[in-house]
């Protein structure tokens, strides 16, 4: 039997509200899958919202969480922890593989560089966060650290061809160890057909790129055909909540739109099971976990054409794909028709269980780890 692998998953921030979004969910899903195979994953991240003493595990995964400290007014990129940075070298040396969910920030970049210095096999997964950017700070970080991390990693995982092209451009040359790895979701039982009035769900961060206002703007047209419909807005606020609430009030929808705030992962799944349709209006979304989770329970999804899952949703009939916000209401209305609702729900569950199975993703990831460890051993020899 192969010896258990000690895998350190490094992400930027973990919080009760899920403020950092998909990368943390991906890291935890992979950690659960690795643990089920007998390996020993550990999570390393900043912590925010837990009080002075962060938890020592997250969903049963052992964790080293350090209280976040803001040192620059740059969103997540301005957060760090002197204690984490001081111990990064020791933490990576305790792992057989360091898997960094890389962003241009003061957590994942230093951990990646520490792994390179310690000559521990490094696997990077960027989730679309390392794009080709014209911003001055991005260019400086790329020159100082990102390029070195990308070139030195044993493997760089990407989701889409667009992300691969950006990574090659940031690295300054084609990355020889780039590997496409989709996000996976644990298998879920399909939800029974929801009862009661139509329930339409938005569950994502309330930020401009996610377009929560487009969700609200589609409500009146849906209500014209389904006057009893209910609409739920879930997710932590990242600046859009006041504008979304103002639009709700301006359209006279206060009695129809419910704001439930940030939800824990199990609560998100509960909301997805209760929903007739899930809507994510965001643009240029690489591979949203919320859509995969929606598909996993059999809730059809409405996404825009620039969503990385758009082609899979369209081809499987697991929801609807719209060109822009003007098509959201029509897509929702189609999916509320009884025949379309049943067919798309079954297709959604089947798609998640085949193309995006967590078991299959973990199989591929373990092969990546094996090659990374083997390459590192040959390099040291």
From TrEMBL:
Gene3D superfamilies per record: Glycogen Phosphorylase B
Assigned keywords, A-Z: Glycosyltransferase, Transferase
UniProt domain Glycosyl transferase family: residue ranges: 191-337
Gene Ontology terms, MF aspect: glycosyltransferase activity
Source domain of life: Bacteria
Protein name from the UniProt record: D-inositol 3-phosphate glycosyltransferase
PANTHER family xref list: BLL3647 PROTEIN, GLYCOSYLTRANSFERASE
Domain Glycosyltransferase subfamily 4-like N-terminal: 21-183
Pfam family, one: Glyco_trans_4_4
Keyword Glycosyltransferase (UniProt): yes
Annotated SUPFAM superfamilies: UDP-Glycosyltransferase/glycogen phosphorylase
